[in-house]
Amino acid sequence: MKLTQLEYILTVSECGSITAATEKLFVTQPTLSQQIMKLEEELGVQLFVRQSRNMVTTLAGEEFLVYARRILNDLDCLTNAMTDYSMHNKGKIRIGMFSSFGASSILNRLFLFSRENPMIETLITVNEGKTLLNMLTAHHLDAAFIPFYGNPPDIQGIYMTKMYDTNMFVLLSPDHPLREKCCIDYTDMKDENIIMPLITSNLHSILVAGFSNSNVNPKIICETCHPEIMVQMVVGKMGVAFGSEVLVQANIYNGIMYRPLKRVITQTIYFAMPMDACEIPANRKFLNFISG
């Protein structure tokens, strides 16, 4: 069974005769008649009753028309859907980002991309940097915004471009005594309760090394990747924490205080995408949007 045969049957039924159908289909009468008979032989049923000038569908023919219309309509929908993909108008992008973004410029750009491309579905996964990188290399994500401290690893097959730098701050409750300092060293926090990022994060190992180099054994009371929990604990005077400029700006309304670390820790945000994912139209459109 061929799609052209479905179209022939539908057209003959609509026109009511072979002669009228040939004019609409731009085929000869022998060709059209032959294709109809060939299909009837293949199916083992008669689709039309041939009259002197008209073609009348049989009961089997009427049911055939129901399915034929459905198939051709689905084919049109399929063609239109693929056209949308090829024109970058439709698709799905799995995007990873880490949880300390807050109300960052990256999130704002994601919102803008979604508004400008309503037919491209964006699925966002929030996790810490190492996990996002693993998901990206395993092709469980199409793109990710990943924080690094220092130069990122050179991973074959992964395209990376730098977005921006942000320094890390010590987060304090509004009336914390350390607010009087212009910057804070690890030794200043030797008696403080410490709220740390997850042990699996790069920042955790950097902070632990900083405390160790200062001969300070930090009193860690919590490890979390959720900025909301961290901020609430700081404001509630449960301890001090560490966060980026972006996180600080997003939580000024909480009255949170912040001071720079004496030994500066710079966090660099990179946009990453597998190179083979760049070939997918929707992904390429997102890459161009982020890079533009």
Low-confidence stretches: none
Distance between the termini: 49 Å
Give the SSE order as H and E letters: HHHEEHEHEHEEEHEHEHEEH
CATH class of the largest domain: Alpha Beta
Number of helices: 10
Mean pLDDT: 87
Q: What percentage of amino acids are in beta strands?
A: 15-25%
Overall tally of domains: 3
Overall spatial form: rod-shaped
CATH topology of the largest domain: D-Maltodextrin-Binding Protein, domain 2
Helical amount? 40-55%
Largest sheet: 7 strands, mixed
Instruction: Give the strand tally.
Output: 11
> What's the alpha carbon Rg, rounded to whole Å?
32 Å
The CATH H-level homologous superfamily of the largest domain: Periplasmic binding protein-like II
Describe the structure.
The protein has 292 residues and is of the alpha/beta class. 42% of the residues lie in helices and 23% in strands. The chain contains ten helices and eleven strands. The strands form three sheets. Strands 3, 4, 5, 6, 9, 10 and 11 form a seven-stranded mixed sheet that branches. Helix 5 links the parallel strand 3 and strand 4. Helix 1 crosses helix 4. The longest helix has 28 residues, at 59-86. It is rod-shaped and about 105 Å long. The mean pLDDT is 87.
In short:
The protein is of the alpha/beta class and 292 residues long. It is 42% helix and 23% strand.
